[in-house]
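Morning run. Coffee first, then this:
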Amino acid sequence: MTSIEKAKLWLNEPFDEETQNAVELLINSNSPDLDDSFYKNLEFGTGGMRGIMGVGTNRLNKYTLGQATQGLANYILQQFPNEEVKVAIAYDVRHNSKEFGKMCADVLTANGIKVLLFKNHRPTPELSFTVREKKCNAGIVLTASHNPPEYNGYKVYWNDGAQIVPPQDSAIINEVQNTKFDQIKFNGNDDLIEWIGEEQDDVYIEACIKNSTYQNICKENLNIVFTSIHGTTYATVPKALRKAGFQKIDLVQEQMVPSGNFPTVESPNPEEPAALEMALDLAKIVNADIVIGTDPDGDRLGIAVRNLENEMQLLNGNQCNTILTYYILDQWKRRGKLNGKEFIGSTIVTSDIFFDIASKFGVDCKVGLTGFKWIGKMIRDFEGQEKFICGGEESFGFMTGDFVRDKDSCGSILLACEIAAFCKAHGKTMYQYLIEIYRDLGMYYESLTSITKKGRDGAEEIKQMMVDFRENPPRELVGSKVIEVKDFQEQTCLYLQENRREVMDDIPKSNVLIYYTEDGSKICIRPSGTEPKIKFYFSVKGNVESEADFKEKLVILNNKIEGIKKDLKL
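And here it is:
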């Protein structure tokens, strides 16, 4: 069925008059948006369902969200027959999020399901925590993370507080696909809604403090600058920091105002230095030791600390997680809590330094596909056998303990500020602490390149790029032989020098390629599951003997990555 044929189906019931008028306008104006709005259906990716808001099967709207929620309701009722079923719903600051949250609640209550609905926008990790703490059967959060303002999204959590994974994900998707738009029950029952307010924030914050802090050392002397970048953490992080004992907290007041327009930034993504520009300006005025920003739904964090020139520098996700992981394991070791039955979680696109950290402290490092849902699955799979300590991925996400089963900026911020206070008390910075870790384990340096290809043609172009990299892997990168090619879609590992291929089925299939070179470089290639992008993750390694030669080694490793990009024709 063509896009225009699919669009014309939306000119009749069950679609409401407002939707019909919007579709008719698309058709009559010969808008190029018509094809992109209808040429496919939105799909669940690594972060759930995410897309541009508007009418159409490839857009986030009342009907695509209603279809997803009706399918979810069908599945939940099948899985938990003859019992009271509860689903928690949260939403972030994006346009329509509050309305979408109530609409999803209406669909669930129309199916006889009780809903715990947040009164106002709250961070995604608080939803994950609430699912477990309130013993819900599932959870929903409306968010598009750090995407541009025109986006929104929908993520589903299971009863362990983690995002859905096999077999629930495919079973739910099957129910969604088998649900017709005229089968959606929109007429909800408000008597089945329990409203959640600030009292839940306090329970969540106490859990963050309990699970994410280790020692009370000079916290009152740490100068912190924090920004929520117009997102949800305005309600939780400042309160958590004060409760944990931090006193010198300067907020970027202009960005503490929640807004789906994100008016002071080009992109509300703490991975990008520009998003923290106002915070960095404030840091100069107040002489901050650490700058922290979070994304709109409050699960990712960006951290800037003072470098060797005493200037604020944004740490990348791997560097941040290296510091947090090393410190946690060191604290566990000092307390005699490690017995060899513990593990940390990571992902296939994250730095391999986490294997080295795990080895140093005698714990296991388990690796999954991109996305924290796979770390959540690790926790569930090994519950009662091995203790999960912490986990992280390169895209500025980290979690401490298993009380939240998703990346959690609040707990991570408390931990990062404790480390910063610890370092300051010992006359050094977090940056110097990172260099000490590199001196101990070897220096890793990473970089990410994203190439955006929008629309149907862009999707085809990304698909062809993956085919080309899969069928024609490079034999050499910056003078070092490529020795392994891991193909997670084919679930094989090709040893190029021996022309030998082995089956690799310990991780589910995914459209990801990884090249390893003889000198320890690692290059991962994958299409984004939530954005029209293809991503290239670079990791190179070397040794550093002292602070004095750190900058020189940094230049060498950065030049090496630039050479790899050139060899890959990026």
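The chain has a mean pLDDT of 95. Good start to the day.
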